[in-house]
Amino acid sequence: MGEMRRAIDREQQDRQKLRDRFASTLVIAAAIIAAVRLARETDITKPTPRLLSVVADSVSLAQRILDRIVG
Q1: How confident is the model over 11-64, as pLDDT tens digits?
Q2: The pTM is what?
Q3: 3-state SS of the chain?
Q4: Do the Cβ atoms of 58 and 28 come closer than 8 Å?
Q5: Are 25 and 66 in contact (CB under 8 A)?
Q6: Whole-angstrom Cα distance, residue 15 to residue 20?
Q7: pLDDT of residue 36
């Protein structure tokens, strides 16, 4: 039983290390997605509800893509 728990913990640690390794990739992907979605916005200097929503959605989408790649 203890060996199984250690194996599961080890697997979770390995996944976390892999996700940490791709953190900068996630930021870049989210920024690109947000930039494409906001390309026609005239003013993105103020944090409007639409801007915040697009950024949040972009981060979520980039996270789902990364989860799919990492497995």
Answers
A1: 888 877 777 777 888 888 999 999 999 998 888 888 899 899 999 999 999 888
A2: 0.65
A3: CHHHHHHHHHHHHHHHHHHHHCHHHHHHHHHHHHHHHCCCCCCCCCCCHHHHHHHHHHHHHHHHHHHHHHC
A4: no
A5: yes
A6: 9
A7: 93
